[in-house]
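We treat protein structure as text, and this decision shapes the records that our systems exchange. Because each token names a local backbone shape, the row as a whole describes the fold. For reference, a complete record is included directly beneath this paragraph.
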Amino acid sequence: MLEGFEDVGSLTASPWIYAVVGLSVLLDVFLPVLPSGVLVIMAATAAAAGSGAATGRVPGEVPDILALTLCAATASVLGDLVAYRLARRGGARLDRAIARSRRLTAAQERLGTALARGGGALVVLARFAPAGRSVVSLGAGATHRSARDFLPWSALAGLTWAIYSVALGYFGAQWLGPTWLATGVSVAALFGAGALATYLMRRKPAQG
């Protein structure tokens, strides 16, 4: 099992690893079924295995971890920006499509209120919730929210999500060893964060 992760870990220095991760993260704003978070965790776990993190030695591949984090965060923000721009230019047809969805309509209202109050915690929470990123990015564009209000929170959300996902894979390999068990526990923790984010987003209107 360790040899398998070492084989994958040797590939983390290859540019295509970052290209696959970046493309998956960028596109999952449109296709939430893409396992971008799982890919980030697996890459971080493999990088930890290749760096000797699990053996207690000083990591020699830390730049790979940093590059993976920056790649995932940048792709996340770019995906948000593309969705935002497309929705902003969608016109009446997109407005009618959103009006037919109670979920999108409610998300638009909550997002508008959050941004109007100068806060964007909803944008950060939505990055962890299943499909939440799609709803918020498209909603911000469709309601013509200012990019100056939305994009800084999108950047914070993308960076927070990337750091959390990479840390799960990297430290999971340190604590549990570079095994599939470590990957499974890390993925479960990512899904747990998504479930918590979904709960907080649904609970917020009731508190208001």
